[in-house]
Amino acid sequence: MDMATHPSVPAGYPHAPLRRARWADLAGAAAEANAFYAPDMLGAALDHLAAGHGVRLIEAQEDGRSIGLLPVVTASSHGRLPVSCVVNWMHDHCFFGAPIIRQGHEVAAWRSFLAQLDAADWAPGFLHLECLDAAGANAAALEALCVEQGRGRREIHRYDRAMLRSDLSADEYWETHVRAKKRKELRRLQKRLAELGQVETHLLACAADLPVWCQDFLTLEASGWKGRQGTALACKKADEAFFRAACAAAFDAGRLHFLRMDMDGRAIAMLVNFRHGEGAFSFKIAFDEALGRFSPGILIEIANLHAVQGDPDMAWMDSCAAVDHPMIDSLWAERRTIVQYRIALHGSGFKRFQRAAAFALATGVERISQIMKGQA
Q1: Which end of the chain is more exposed for a tag (fewer CB within 10 A), N or C?
Q2: Is residue 67 within 8 Å of residue 112, measured between CB atoms?
Q3: For 78, which DSSP code?
């Protein structure tokens, strides 16, 4: 098996088209979907968000083709513990951290990832993996490999977040999973909003419209609380550039799912999703807070429900929402369990000792904390 570790990949890096074509082939055969590590979004993130983070791309290869891709960085601490470790790279706009692994090569890809990290002089401590699906292909392959190799593996956090996965039609889903009182209230809001002007919902279909839609989204998001707190995409040039580049690349790849709700031709709510395989990830939502009494954010989520359930090529959508999100949790009934893992790294000589000590220290501190909280 060939093994290759690539350093941070800035814009214009040598042979970029060749490497991204190889990664596109890998993403097309992924055992577990992750739009954030697909070439369009990952490429945009590397080009615009990676500077100063020391991003490394751990690539597993077999017979000259990629079977896995894991972006990582090194961190100087692990939670509140001043212990350095390797972490899967998740920038501020990345909401799922599962590496892309080729279907049928899951354990082989992880065997390569861990062997490369074991051999890397730059890799400290242990591997901390954030935001994986507890029931996903990566979690299963990791568990099997760690058992086989006698490698330490600890689950250190888990939570459930809303997802949409159902064979019901949108109307059936709406009737089944949303309380009658809430349905009645939302119908009333839809009617009242329509009294103010002509309300229309559109799904982006034309490439020529994309720049305008991106600008409308950026403006709408920045007009609300995210703009006031400085977290809107438009507040940082790098974030805005990433957003525009990711949307353009995903549209070209057929993976952008962009919805807008207009009133008299003006955007009052917009929702950006990114597809991968048979699934999709809900990325960002923006709405006109001046119309907050009509709940435009919820209304566009209703439109999104119809778009997803009406698309025969889309089997599910991950909300990417925070735990116990009051809005989406009330609309989507299914849940995805998101976990974090700590994986021991091996090596040789003093490096092996250092890594074993770091893993043991982190695990020991965690155990003491659980005992003090009465969770043990």
Answers
A1: C
A2: yes
A3: B
C-alpha–C-alpha distance, residues 360 and 125, integer Å: 10
Q: How large is the angle between the packed helices 296-309 and 180-194, nearest 10 degrees?
A: 110
Main-chain phi, psi angles of 225, to 5 degrees: -65, -30
Cβ neighbors of 203 (< 8 A, separation 6 or more) are: 257, 258, 259, 307
Type of residue at 141:
A
Question: Which two tokens mark 254?
Answer: 């057929």
- The DSSP annotation for 141-193 comes to HHHHHHHHHT--EEEEEEEEEEEE--SS-HHHHHHHHS-HHHHHHHHHHHHHH
Which CATH number, 3.30.479, 3.30.70, 3.40.50, 3.40.630, labels domain 166-314? 3.40.630
Structure-token pair, residue 324: 């116990």
> How many residues are recorded in the chain?
376
**8 A C-beta contact, residue 38 and residue 27:** yes
Encoding tokens for residue 44?
């945009």
Contact 105, 141 (CB under 8 A): no
The CATH number of the domain covering residues in 3-160+338-372 = 3.40.630.30
Spatial CA neighbour of 67 closest among 115, 114, 20, 107: 107
